[in-house]
C-alpha cells in the first residue's frame, strides 16, 4: 500500500469531543449501519505482510465488506444514495469547506460532509469516525476508526505546529478509549500496533511503518480492562534510596514508591496570579510572587491560605462562604503533588504544604528555557553549545539541589519545560529564548550532564525527570539521557488522553517510566455557552486522567507514574502583553490551535477554578466541574 502524505488544514489535533448528554441532541439515525458490529475482515480480503513495512490489506469481496461495515466506512459509498444526505445537500446545509464542519454542534452535518469530502481517504475516514463518536453512534465510530487501522495505517497529517500527525496509531488509541469508556459494548481491540520508525523528527520522508492491525474481539464488560497481579511479579530494577524509589517489575511495569507505598502523582500546576498583574508588564514573577503576596496584610500568602469558594457564583463572599485557602481546597480535591517550574522561594510555605496538607513537590529548573538560568539574552537564546551558558545552567541546577536536597517534600527533580520546542524570536515571532529545537543532540546531552550533577549532590538519590514537549526527539532522549530516570512530557492530545501509543512509544524506545508534566483544556469555546464549555472541560480531564491511570503499574503499558493538571486557577495575563492585551480582562482571543472545545486554546481559561469577574481577586474561587470530577477520581 502506498503511504499517504497529507498536508491537512486541520487545526492541531482537532479532536473536539462533546458530552453525550447534550451531544445526543444533535445525534441522528444511520440509513445503513452495516450487518456486522465487529467486522471479520478475513472473510472479505487478505492481510499481507503483517508486522512488516510491506503491510497491506487486499479486498477480495468488496460488496460483502461494504455490506458489513455500513455507510460512511470504506469501501461503502451508500451515503451518496442516502435520501437524508440528498435532502441536506439540496438544502444547502452541506455547502462550504469540509474543515469548517469539524467542530460544529450538528454532528449529522459533520458526518455527511466528511463522508463525502474530496480528501485523502485516511483523513476523511478519521473525521467521519469523529462525527459518529460525537453523535453517540459508538459502535459505528469504532468500526470507522478500525477501517483506518486496516486500510490506511500509514496516513500522515500535519498539526497546527507543523509537526507530523500519525492517524493510524491515533485510531487505535481512540478504539481503546471508546471500548474502555463503553464496556457495555463487550468488545476490545487486541494485538493492534503501528510502529513508525524515525518518527521523532519532523522528516516524514524517512518514516517506516510496521503494521499489525490486530483485531476487535467480543469480551465480557469486566474483561475490557485487564489488571496484572503484581504479587506474582519480581522486581528487576530499583532507582533511588531511602524513602523515594522507582521499581520495575519483570513485566516491564514501573511503580513509584514513597515510604514503600505505591504513589501515583495526582499533580497540579500551581502559580495563582492576582487579576491585573502580569509578568509581561513587570508586575508579577510567576514562580515566586504567589509564595509571598499578602494583599490583605494578615501576614499570610493570599492564595495558599486566604481564598474562599463562591459557591453560588454571585461574585461576593456570603456568610456561608468562609475562608478556606487553596492548600486546603487542593487537599480536599485529592492533589498529592504540585509542580514548581523553576526552584522554590519559600521553604517554610512548602514545608507547611507537606506537613499539614500532605502535598509533595516536583522541583524544577527551566534549564535555559525562556533564557532562564543561562545568562543568554532573549533574542540570543540559550545555546547548548555555549560553554558559558552551560556552566551558568549547571550552577542554577546546583543551587536548586543544594537548597532543597534535605527537604522531605521534594518528590522528584524536573529538568526543563518543553525546551525541545524552544526557538529564538525575531521581528516576526516572540520565540521562547531557547535554541534546543535546533540543537537536539547538544540539548539532550546537556540534560544528562545536569542529571548526573543532581545525582552527585542528592543524598536521597531522588528520581530525575525531563519535561519534554510531547515525544518530539524521543530518539535523542533515549540515546543521550541514560542518567535521566523519568520521561516527562507536556501533552495535550485531546479528550481521549495521550493514548496507548504514547506510553508504548516510550517503553519501546527507552523502557523508562513516564509522567504527564502538563495536561488540561480550556473552559471556553466559541459557539458554546460557559456551562457547556465547563462540561466539556470536565469530560476532557476525566478521560485524560483515566488514560494516565489505566497505563500505570498493573494496567495497560504499565509505565505511567501519574500526571500534572494544568492548571489550578485562570491567569488573566496569558493572552499576550500590554497594551494589546489587558491583564485586568479575561480575554476570549484564541492563541493557537489545540484539541480543545472548538479547536483552539484560550490560555486565560485553563483553570480548574475561575476567578469570577475578577473584582475579588486573588481571594475568590469558583470551582469548576473539573474540580469535583477529580475529587471523585482521586479519592
Structure notes:
By secondary structure, this protein is of the alpha/beta class. The protein has two domains: 20-223, no CATH class; 246-633, Glycosidases (TIM Barrel), CATH 3.20.20. It contains 16 helices and 25 strands. The strands form eight sheets. An eight-stranded parallel beta barrel has the order 13-15-16-17-18-19-20-21, surrounded by four helices. Strands 9-10-11-12 form a four-stranded antiparallel sheet, with no helix packed on it. Strands 14-25-24 form a three-stranded mixed sheet. The chain starts with 19 loop residues before the first helix and ends with a helix.
Q: Keywords, please?
A:
alpha/beta; TIM Barrel; 2 domains; 635 residues; 28% helix; 25 strands; 17% strand; globular
How do the strands and helices of this protein lay out in sequence?
Layout lengths: L19 H4 L21 E4 L7 E4 L2 H8 L13 H9 L15 H9 L5 H14 L3 H14 L4 E3 L5 E3 H15 L5 E4 L2 E5 L10 E5 L2 E4 L16 E5 L4 E6 L4 E5 L2 E2 L2 E5 L32 H5 L1 E2 L16 H8 L3 E4 L6 H11 L2 E6 L21 H18 L5 E6 L24 H18 L6 E6 L4 H7 L5 E5 L9 H11 L3 E6 L10 H20 L10 E6 L26 E2 L6 E2 L7 E2 L9 E4 L1 H9 L2
Parallel strand pairs: 13-15, 13-21, 14-25, 15-16, 16-17, 17-18, 18-19, 19-20, 20-21
Antiparallel strand pairs: 1-2, 3-4, 5-8, 6-7, 9-10, 10-11, 11-12, 22-23, 24-25
Helix pairs in contact: 4-5, 5-6, 6-7, 11-12, 15-16
Q: What share of residues is helical?
A: 25-40%
Rounded to an integer in angstroms, the radius of gyration calculated over CA atoms is 25 Å
According to CATH, the fold-level topology of the largest domain is TIM Barrel
N-to-C terminal Cα separation, in Å? 49 Å
* Second-tier CATH architecture of the largest domain: Alpha-Beta Barrel
Mean pLDDT: 94
Number of helices: 16
Strand arrangement, largest sheet? Answer: 13-15-16-17-18-19-20-21
Number of strands: 25
CATH superfamily membership of the largest domain, which one? Glycosidases
Number of discrete domains: 2
User: What proportion strand?
Assistant: 15-25%
CATH class category label of the largest domain: Alpha Beta
Give unreliable regions as ranges: 1-25
Gross morphology is globular
Which secondary-structure class do the elements indicate?
alpha/beta
Largest sheet: 8 strands, parallel, barrel
Amino acid at each position: 500500500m502506498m503511504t499517504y502524505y497529507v498536508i491537512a488544514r486541520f487545526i492541531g489535533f482537532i479532536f473536539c469531543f462533546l458530552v453525550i448528554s447534550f451531544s445526543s441532541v444533535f445525534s441522528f439515525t444511520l440509513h445503513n449501519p452495516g450487518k456486522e458490529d465487529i467486522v471479520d475482515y478475513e472473510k472479505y480480503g487478505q492481510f499481507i505482510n503483517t508486522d512488516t513495512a510491506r503491510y497491506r490489506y487486499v479486498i477480495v469481496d468488496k460488496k460483502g465488506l461494504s455490506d458489513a461495515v455500513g455507510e460512511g466506512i470504506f469501501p461503502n459509498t451508500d451515503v451518496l444514495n442516502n435520501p437524508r444526505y440528498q435532502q441536506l445537500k439540496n438544502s444547502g446545509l452541506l455547502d462550504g469547506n469540509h474543515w469548517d464542519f469539524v467542530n460544529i454542534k450538528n454532528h449529522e452535518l459533520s458526518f455527511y460532509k466528511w463522508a463525502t469530502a474530496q480528501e485523502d481517504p485516511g483523513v476523511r475516514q478519521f473525521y467521519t469516525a469523529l462525527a459518529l463518536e460525537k453523535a453517540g453512534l459508538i459502535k459505528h465510530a469504532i468500526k470507522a476508526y478500525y477501517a483506518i487501522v486496516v486500510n490506511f495505517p500509514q496516513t500522515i497529517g500535519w498539526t497546527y505546529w507543523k509537526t507530523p500527525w500519525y492517524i493510524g496509531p491515533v485510531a487505535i488509541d481512540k478504539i481503546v478509549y471508546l471500548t474502555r469508556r463503553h464496556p457495555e459494548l463487550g468488545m476490545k481491540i487486541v494485538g493492534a500496533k503501528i510502529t513508525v520508525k524515525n518518527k521523532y523528527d519532523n522528516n516524514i520522508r524517512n518514516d517506516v511503518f510496521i503494521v499489525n492491525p490486530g483485531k476487535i474481539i467480543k469480551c465480557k464488560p469486566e474483561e475490557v480492562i485487564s489488571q496484572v497481579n503484581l504479587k506474582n511479579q519480581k522486581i528487576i530494577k530499583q532507582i533511588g534510596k531511602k524513602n523515594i524509589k522507582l521499581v520495575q517489575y519483570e513485566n516491564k511495569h514501573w511503580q513509584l514508591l514513597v515510604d514503600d507505598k505505591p504513589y501515583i502523582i495526582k499533580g497540579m500546576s500551581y502559580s495563582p496570579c492576582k487579576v491585573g498583574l502580569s509578568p509581561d508588564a513587570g508586575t508579577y514573577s510567576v514562580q515566586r510572587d504567589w509564595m509571598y503576596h499578602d494583599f490583605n496584610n494578615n501576614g499570610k500568602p493570599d492564595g495558599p491560605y486566604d481564598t474562599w469558594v463562591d459557591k453560588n457564583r454571585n461574585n461576593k463572599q456570603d456568610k456561608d462562604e468562609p475562608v478556606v485557602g487553596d492548600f486546603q481546597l487542593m487537599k480536599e480535591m485529592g492533589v498529592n503533588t504540585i509542580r514548581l517550574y523553576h526552584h522554590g522561594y519559600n521553604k517554610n510555605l512548602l514545608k507547611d504544604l507537606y506537613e499539614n496538607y500532605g502535598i509533595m513537590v516536583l522541583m524544577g529548573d527551566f534549564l535555559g528555557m525562556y533564557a532562564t538560568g543561562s545568562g543568554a539574552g532573549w533574542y540570543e537564546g540559550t545555546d547548548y553549545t555555549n560553554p558559558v551558558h552551560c556552566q551558568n545552567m549547571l550552577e542554577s541546577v546546583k543551587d536548586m539541589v543544594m537548597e532543597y536536597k534535605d527537604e522531605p517534600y521534594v518528590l522528584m527533580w524536573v529538568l526543563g519545560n518543553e525546551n525541545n520546542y524552544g526557538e529564538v524570536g525575531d521581528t516576526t515571532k516572540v520565540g521562547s529564548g531557547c535554541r534546543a529545537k535546533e540543537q537536539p543532540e547538544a540539548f539532550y546531552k546537556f540534560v544528562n550532564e545536569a542529571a548526573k550533577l543532581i545525582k552527585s549532590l542528592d543524598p536521597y538519590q531522588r528520581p530525575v525527570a525531563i519535561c519534554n514537549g510531547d515525544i518530539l526527539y524521543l530518539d535523542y532522549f533515549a540515546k543521550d539521557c541514560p542518567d535521566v530516570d523519568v520521561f516527562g512530557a507536556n501533552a495535550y492530545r485531546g479528550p481521549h488522553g495521550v493514548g496507548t501509543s504514547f506510553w508504548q512509544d516510550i517503553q519501546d524506545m527507552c523502557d523508562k517510566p513516564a509522567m504527564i508534566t502538563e495536561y488540561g483544556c480550556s473552559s471556553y469555546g466559541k459557539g458554546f455557552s460557559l456551562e457547556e464549555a465547563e462540561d466539556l472541560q470536565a469530560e476532557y480531564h476525566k478521560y485524560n486522567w483515566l488514560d494516565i491511570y489505566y497505563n500505570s503499574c498493573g494496567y495497560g503499558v504499565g509505565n505511567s507514574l501519574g500526571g500534572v493538571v494544568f492548571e489550578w486557577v485562570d491567569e488573566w495575563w496569558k493572552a499576550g502583553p500590554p497594551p494589546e492585551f489587558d491583564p485586568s480582562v479575561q480575554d476570549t482571543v484564541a492563541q493557537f490551535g489545540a484539541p480543545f472545545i472548538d479547536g483552539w486554546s484560550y490560555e486565560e481559561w485553563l483553570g480548574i477554578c475561575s476567578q469570577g469577574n475578577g473584582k475579588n481577586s486573588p481571594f475568590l474561587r469558583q470551582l469548576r466541574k473539573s474540580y469535583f470530577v477529580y475529587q471523585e477520581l482521586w479519592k
